[in-house]
Amino acid sequence: MKNAKKTATTATPKKTATPKATPVKAATPAATPKAKKTATPKAAPTKAKKTATPAAPVVKHERVTVKGRAIEMLERAKGATQAELMETFSWLPHTTRGFISILGKTRKIESSSVDGVRTYRIVGGGK
Fold first, then answer.
1. Domain of 109, in residue numbers
2. What is the DSSP annotation of the chain?
3. How many domains does the chain have?
4. Are 120 and 71 in contact (CB under 8 A)?
5. With 90 as the cut, is the pLDDT of residue 123 above it?
6. N or C: which terminus of the chain carries fewer CB neighbours within 10 A?
């Protein structure tokens, strides 16, 4: 083994991360100072005659709700029948009765039945 080559067992140095250099950005037109503008002579402003135009009247639209429409029907002298309410608002009978029940918490409602036709009417001012 005299002729055998000895291999050197030297450790290779580890590579360490070196920070990369950030590229230098070229100067953008916005970053460069702007040249001063020279003042140009302006013509003297002329006074324009203002003519008074009448403003359009503001029309305020009232919100029309189902509840409001139903109350209008019930405030009539003869009131409204259950069938009229059902037809006008496409309600079923239980919906009509429920609406009248809830409305009765804040208003005095008179209910009458003549020949099997149920009629509801708001009595007095109510709310």
1. 66-122
2. -TTPPPPP-PPPPPP-PPPPPPPPPPPPTTTSPPPPPPPPPPPPPPPPPPPPPPPPPPPPPPPP-HHHHHHHHHTSTT-EEHHHHHHHHT--HHHHHHHHHHHTTTS-EEEEEETTEEEEEE-S---
3. 1
4. no
5. yes
6. N
What is the per-residue pLDDT for 26? 61
* Assigned domain for 73 exists: yes
CA distance 60 to 104: 30
Query: What pLDDT sits at residue 5?
Result: 60
Q: How confident is the model at residue 15 (pLDDT cuts 50, 70, 90)?
A: low
Assigned domain for 113 exists: yes
On whether residue 40 sits in a domain, the answer given is no
pLDDT tens per residue, range 52-68: 677 778 788 888 899 99
Give the percent of the chain with pLDDT over 70.
60
